[in-house]
Amino acid sequence: TIRQSWDTMKIDFVLEDIQELFDDSKEGLERVTTIVQNLRDFSRIDQAQDFAEYNINDGIEATLVVAKNEIKYDTNIEMEFSEVPPVFCNSGQVNQVFLNVLMNAAQAIKSQGRDDKGTITIKTYAMDNDVVCEISDDGPGIAADKLSKVFDPFFTTKPVGKGTGLGLSVSYDIVVNKHKGQLLAESTVGKGAKFIIKLPIERKEQNDEKATETNGNVSTVAASQRSGLRTEEG
């Protein structure tokens, strides 16, 4: 009968809807699981205080998931990863450095109020006894007189109320003092900035040094591990 046919059609529609709802729920659950896993990888809460072998490529990818909503509207991310050996580090702290530098680059691009998206390029490679991560942007760049202070606590180039001036200082402490690595900042005004993070493959026990140098139109600040001295030039 017509009534029976109509009831059968309604059941078919309901079954189709239920299957679609199940598919959506499964997809949502998988997405949440991925986000939670990336958050765990970022913070490494299971070994937050420990030094262990860690692949920085994995750390950068986890950090990008955490930072995605903050950077996706104003920047495109280009990744040029090489196969690198693991470094002996506190992964949670190292991921915090990646996040600080990425957010600094994204905020610099956003400050320009440009119509097009900016670009942040992330490169990784091994060099000598270090694994290196370069994070560069095509933002406004940093003047030489300010570049020499970027790792100082509470120093910021952002407008009042827009930054604490602690992100790069904390990053310096993590890379240089806690991991005996190097942190360098290069910039050409009007073309952008680059931060170079060098982490030793094997853990070192040395002191730290901060040095500044200017080479042509490109200014560089280096944070390294030799002595407790700090020098600033031009």
Plain-language structure description:
The protein is α+β, with helices and mostly antiparallel strands and 234 residues long. The chain has one domain: Histidine kinase-like ATPase, C-terminal domain (Heat Shock Protein 90). The protein is 40% helix and 26% strand. Strands 2-4-5-7-6-9-8 form a seven-stranded mixed β-sheet. It has a two-stranded antiparallel ribbon with strand order 1-3. Strand 6 and strand 7 form a beta hairpin. Helix 1 crosses helix 2. The longest helix is centred in the first third of the chain and has 42 residues. 32% of the residues are buried. The C terminus is likely disordered.
Task: Please tell me the CATH architecture by its name.
Answer: 2-Layer Sandwich
H and E order: HEHEEHEEHHEEEE
How confident overall, as mean pLDDT? 76
Shape summary: globular
The order of strands across the largest sheet is 2-4-5-7-6-9-8
CATH topology, what is it called? Heat Shock Protein 90
* Content-based structural category: alpha+beta
- CATH homologous superfamily classification: Histidine kinase-like ATPase, C-terminal domain
* Major pleated sheet: 7 strands, mixed
**Helical proportion?**
40-55%
Per DSSP, the total helix count is: 5
Which ranges are low-confidence, i.e. pLDDT below 50, for 5 or more consecutive residues?
206-216, 224-234
CATH level 1 class label: Alpha Beta
Q: What Rg is obtained from the alpha carbons, in whole angstroms?
A: 23 Å
Strands, total number: 9
- Tell me the fraction of residues in β-strands, as a range: 25-35%
Give the total of domains. Answer: 1
